Amino acid sequence: MEAIDIIKNLIAEDRLEEAIELLNHRIEQNEKDDEAYYLLGNIFRKKGNWKQATFYYLSATEINPDSPAKRAQEVLIDIQNFMNPDYNP
Asked: How far is CA 4 from CA 10, 71, 77, in A?
């Protein structure tokens, strides 16, 4: 099993801190690893930290404009707009 698959399994099992540690290590080894940034974005979205999720999604799309992080960021914005009391009193 590849390292990225192990990380994805950790995320699926809600072992988020372990996944974060491994992803940070991947980024230390290769700061252009857009998939690592994307997965970090997913973790922080899952944790409810949308500001941090946005940071990682944007980091991924700066490296790879075709990253799935672009769509994830769009969805995050849609959710935030939906939850905005100015739009949904």
From this structure: 10, 20, 27
CA proximity to 69, closest of 48, 46, 41: 41
d(CA 63, CA 29) in angstroms, rounded, equals 15
Q: Which of 36, 84, 40 is nearest to 63 (CA)?
A: 36
Cα–Cα distance for residue pair 55/45, rounded to 1 Å = 11
pLDDT of 20-36, one tens digit each? 999 999 999 999 999 99
Three-point CA angle 10, 1, 14, nearest 5°: 5
d(CA 74, CA 82): 12
d(CA 19, CA 1): 15
User: Which domains are seen in the chain, by residue range?
Assistant: 3-83 (1.25.40.10)
For the entire predicted model, the pTM comes to 0.87
